[in-house]
Every structure is written in C-alpha cells, then in structure tokens.
Design a protein that fits this description.
InterPro entries: Pyridox_Oxase_N, Split_barrel_FMN-bd, Stress-Dev_Protein. Pfam families: PNPOx_N. It comes from Paenibacillus lutrae. By secondary structure, the protein is α+β, with helices and mostly antiparallel strands. The protein has one domain: Pnp Oxidase, Chain A (Roll). It has three helices and eight strands, in the order αββββαββαββ. Strands 1, 2, 3, 4, 5, 6, 7 and 8 form an eight-stranded antiparallel beta sheet that branches. The protein is globular, with a radius of gyration of 15 Å.
Length: 138
C-alpha cells in the first residue's frame, strides 16, 4: 500500500475518533492525558489552556506521541503517532478548531488563554486487528 493510500485510511480513523491520548515529556519522563481530537488531513489540533503544564513541557521538548482508537473497548483500528508539536495562538486556527463544548473552559475563540497545539506527524503506525502494523512516513 502506498503512503498516500495509507494516509487516507489513517484520516478515516481520525474522523471516527473524538478523543486521543496525548503524551509529552517532562524531565525525561512521559506525561499522558486524554484530549479532544480535531484534525485536517493528517495534521492534528488539540485545544488547551496556555497555562497548562503541557504547554510548558512543549517549550522544552516538542516531541509528542498520540494514541488514537482505543477507548477502553476493543478497536479494529489503532494509530500510534510520533510527532512534533507547536503552540499556536493564531486567531484563524483558533476559530477553525472552536466548538461550543469548549465554552466549559474558555470564554470563546478569542479568549487569550485558549491556544491550539498543532501536531505534525513524523511517523504513524496503523494497526488493524491482528495484522502487521503499516507505517506511514512524513
């Protein structure tokens, strides 16, 4: 399967999942938390508060890992995503990612504490059932 074909399968998995496990590195140790998942193509966007530990951790180390497709129940498709993250306060990106359920944490898309983690995959491991993993490379 070509990288482009695999990319389409990966996008379909991203479309089907609203939550992911997001891991950063803090003092050489992993930190993992659940986050709401947004994406455009293979670029992933995570909404967060600029005052969170994850934002500070990304300043020191932009390498992240995301797990998609396992929500406590067996899943037919799982993604393991190795990526690099940047923190963005770009207004047009904040508006694009904004959803009304974010009102629980932010006043609106122009809240100064609302930022977007822009995740650019380096490598994605696509696992379907018991088949051997397939690897997508940037």
């Amino acid at each position: 399967m070509s990288n482009q074909e695999l990319g389409k399968k990966i996008e379909a998995v991203l479309d089907q999942n609203e939550v992911c496990s997001f891991a950063t590195v803090d003092n050489g140790k992993p930190r993992v938390r659940y986050m709401a998942l947004f994406h455009e193509g293979l670029t992933i966007y995570l909404a967060t508060n600029r005052k969170t530990d994850k934002v500070d951790e990304l300043k020191d180390n932009p390498n992240v890992h995301i797990l998609v497709g396992f929500d406590g129940k067996p899943s037919k498709e799982i993604l393991q995503i190795e990526a690099q993250a940047t923190v963005s306060s770009n207004d047009s990106l904040k508006e694009k990612v904004w959803r009304d359920d974010l009102k629980d944490w932010f006043e609106g898309p122009h809240d100064p504490n609302y930022v977007i983690l822009e995740i650019k995959p380096i490598q994605i491991e696509y696992i379907q059932g018991y088949d051997d993993p397939q690897i997508w490379q940037a």
